[in-house]
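Risk register update: the risk of archive-format incompatibility is retired. Evidence:
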Amino acid sequence: MKLAVLGTRGIPASYGGFETFAEELSRRLVERGHAVTVYCRIRHSNPVYRGVRLRYLPTIRHKYLDTIAHTLLSTSHLLLHRQDAALYCNAANAVFTLAPRLFGIPVALNVDGLERKRRKWGRPAQSWYRLSEWLATFCPSAVVTDAEAIADYYWRRYGKATDFIPYGAETGKLSTTEVLGKLGLEPGRYFLYVSRMEPENNALMVRQAFERVSTPFKLALIGDAPYAASYIEKVKDTRDPRVVIPGAIYGRGYHELLSHCFAYIHATEVGGT
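Archived output:
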């Protein structure tokens, strides 16, 4: 089958959960013999990654327009280059899932969490997400949720049954410690926090709480965000030598950090699967 993935920043994953999801799913679909295209905003050096075709299209680099502008262009391209099925990510893109259906293309929408509750969004964006939640109940062929709480929410609020498909994860521990050495960390002697550096994910709260604790262990705060510069500056504003904030780390380095941390800290409010 010819399949397309729309609504993420693209692969290789270098942003968040949707991108990791798109990469892991698309490469596995290729391994099963399908032809997969992922629409991308972030340009990679090659047009093909792990057997997946990367389709680069422009967007409007703006906090409120980035996602919907790119998905609009991606949908237009999809209609001109027909696929057998399409997967959209992000509830904000619900309105775009109707057009492929009208052309006979089955569409699934992975809605993620309750984005409208994020403090980073102003009233117009929150209203768009609220409208998109409703559109998600009838525009796509199927709605996918990755957490039981979100599945329950769509059922209770809209009477919409969704397909609950939780994410997988890399299993097993790595023995290598290359990234730990670069960051000045010792195996088993650091707390690990990984998330997008946005207010609802509470990296600042975690850092401030850690600074009040007397411990020889370190705290590694891993992550970044394209439209949260002022918040990230607050997170980095520390004189505690135990706190390490290197930015985003993906792939093997991320797996190494997970393999050797003393404990993992999860502090998200409205997402974070």
